[in-house]
Amino acid sequence: MxxxxxxxxxxxxxxxxxxxxxxxxxxxxxxxxxxNALWMTxxxxxxxxxxxxxxSSIKSIVPGHVRIPIFITVIATxxxxxxxxxxxYQPDVYSSLGIFIPLIVVNCIILGxxxxxxxxxxxxxxxxxxxxxxxxxxxxxxxxxxxxxxxxANKLFGFTLLPGFKAAGMxxxxxxxxxxxxxxLWAMNSFKSRS
Amino acid sequence: xxxxxxxxxxxxxxxxxxxxxxxxxxxxTYQQIEMLNEQKEKDALAKVLPGFEITDTxxxxxxxxYWSAKNSDNVKGxxxxxxxxxxxxxxxVMVGVDSNLNIVGISILAQTETPGLGARCIEVQSSxxxxxxxxxxxxxxxxxxxxxxxxxxxLDGSRQIFISKKGDWNESIARELLxxxxxxxxxxxxxxxxxxRDIIESGIEKxxxxxxx
Lengths: 195, 213
What we know:
Chain A is mainly α. Chain A has helices at about 5-10, 15-20, 25-30, 35-55, 65-90, 90-95, 110-120, 125-155, 175-195; strands at about 155, 160. A two-stranded antiparallel ribbon of chain A has the order 1-2. Chain A is globular, with a radius of gyration of 18 Å. Chain B is globular, with a radius of gyration of 23 Å. The N and C termini of chain B lie far apart (about 75 Å).
């Protein structure tokens, strides 16, 4: 098994959002600003790494037909840890991400990696897989957020970009998210079909 | 038999571990969270009743808390929390009034309005641009109150508050708004503006008898 391949597959070849089409809910919901996208990436990657480590290390004792409840318990536990820690030490982030923190539990990327990868592979390679997938997911979120924040709010990292310029409010709303995501899907597909 | 017992025991063991981990994290952080909540309440009180000293925390007949206060001129002030439906979810507003029902200040404690539109009710107008960040020319905000909340200051809460569409609040329209007892709506979010106005008015209505007695 090639460590490098397992790491980089999350960016292009198996990009969760643009190729596998999973994790779309946070991709559409929290990409109104780059800082939200970065915090979401951090939270998701942390949960992904922890759940992959645990799932990989208990894979030999988990009975096949209760594996899904067990995986979900593991994931929900780490998501709750993230939620409590953010609430205590980053209250602003907690209030701006709101409901999308607890919703990481049902992010298909995490259960998908537990089921498809960590439950069949060793601990080290599962961490590499989680890092690659988490950062691939995060890169897509940040690119999406970059377009939405600059065009939709005329801001970058929360600071006004061009004073006096009127932002296209639609880009900050759901249609802007879908349109940007669609264009990114198109770019990704055309890139992949060429290479 | 074994095919039922073993999975049950394993699942139970894993949920036990999860419970213990969460109990541990909770016991480390709960004091911090409680402290933040108290701090938040204190900050909000300082925002809605600037220059006042909180003298009492009271309980209204319906069971909610409200605060009474006094400033250096011995004017009595009151702060209370009022909530109601916004465009997408409940908005909680803390309102500070003096004994003549003039609004001293408001602070939106919780809202889930549309980002970029209704959520601008908590947006602080920053004069800093991204260029300033790069060149290191950041200036400190003198009054970090969102403009939408600023314009409620000094309005007469005993009369109806009107809503006009004059665009973002600024110093040049402040006098005119004050004279007409009106606020300027957030562009594209008139519903949010109306909701906040209604929440404030219903709160004042509820506490009117306590405040003016």
